[in-house]
Amino acid sequence: MNVGASRLLGYAALLAIGAAAPYLFPNYQSQMAELWLFIVFALTWDLVGGQMGYNSFGNVVFIGVGMYVCAITQVGLFYSVAEYNAAKGGGQTVFTFDVAQYLEGLALGLPLAAVSAGIVAAILGSAVLGMRGHYFAICTLGLGVAAGQIANGWEWIGAGSGMVVPHAPSGIGDTARFYYYFAFVLAVITFIVVAWLYTTRFGLAINAIRDDEDKAEAMGLPTTRIKVSAWVISALFLGVAGGILGNLKRFIDPIEVAFAGATFGVWMVLMAILGGKGTLWGPVIGAVVFQVLKEVFWTYLLGWQRVALGLMIVLIVVFFPQGILGFLRDRFPERFGHKVDPALARGAGGAAE
């Protein structure tokens, strides 16, 4: 069996496992759905942060925009959004959704979430992607904080009291499983699109910007347009992921869920670094390892889970600066397609001794 056939067989096996996972582990459907969304977070962050070299802490803005736009669409198709959020689950009006209404809201809400996040990315990108390095990172951090505060004071979307996402009708069946497959399909599509982008001239262009933006610009590359395009692509997928996550959580808090810079905003960076930023599979591996460790900490270190996550961040930065893939590539280069001269390897071993 050649390498191409083996790779296709491996992908098929992974897809089969992903499709069967809710039935194999029914008690962990929500956690596995969150894992697929984390993979989307890490892949899309790495498109800009790893492949293009622009470390953004503001991608959480697109998650929050997608989350609110999807929920507002689901409600607004059938009820007044202001009345719905003013009721806070009470009042005289009963807000119910049948299966057709619920599916119609999702069918329109998720695409609108993607488009809205993409538009926000285009507007913000045109304004801030002229900055570089720490200035860009700090600016995007401020964007996430500002977005959270705006949502926190906007009464129409629930303000600080948050927004309850429409409850799924009984005809939908197992809600966790329903959204698991949404997240699974989104992660697969994101991976395919990102993998394809890295094989195109666009992939070469963002790598050129990462390596030396001034030279890339001198050679005629429209660097600003390319940077904005990369951010918009990331935002499109994050908008859909936000819509799914909002329905999975069932409640949107503006600070703790929608624009959660202290959690999702940091975690997506951590996952990409943990697996190996600037690679295709690194963010995927990092997301899997991070989600498993997070659930272990939440289960066995309740009350200390955030301390454990903080220590994990320190350990990753100190001992795995190149990520898991980078560490493995250095230890076993031949398994990653790099030829190693035996004489040089022996020489290096002797020098080490």
Automatic annotation (TrEMBL):
CDD domains: TM_PBP1_LivM_like. GO terms for molecular function: branched-chain amino acid transmembrane transporter activity. The chain crosses the membrane at residues 30-48, 60-82, 102-124, 136-158, 178-198, 228-245, 257-274, 281-301, 307-328. InterPro entries: ABC_transp_permease, LivM-like. Its main location: membrane. It is found in: Cell membrane. It comes from the Bacteria. It is a multi-pass membrane protein. The keyword Transport does not apply. The keyword Heme does not apply. Keywords: Cell membrane, Membrane, Transmembrane, Transmembrane helix. One of its GO terms (cellular component) is plasma membrane. Pfam families: BPD_transp_2 (PF02653). This is Branched-chain amino acid ABC transporter permease.
